[in-house]
Amino acid sequence: MTISTYEKTKWTLDQVLEAVRTLTRSEQYQLQDAIKEISDVQLVHPNNSSRAKERGWRLAKQIRAELKTTTQNTLDDTMASLRGRAWSL
Prior knowledge:
There is one protein chain. This protein is mostly helical. The chain has 2 domains: 12-45; 50-88, no CATH class. The protein has 4 helices and no strands. The longest helix is centred in the C-terminal third of the chain and has 20 residues, at 50-69.
């Protein structure tokens, strides 16, 4: 007689994303539909419009300018001072 116990697997976000990348496009849509049924989580494709890209470049330019004037050395240091250490976990 074999007794087996169920142990819940704990996945990291990187493991989940890597697993999703292996799915076909139709399987990704099926997963997206299944998530919609059980959760308020919504998966959306990034906005690739030229307007959104231009806004991103402007924001990046502002961030670079702020980083040049700050006393911290890195983006991690700056983000930690603004939001705390948990921002990158």
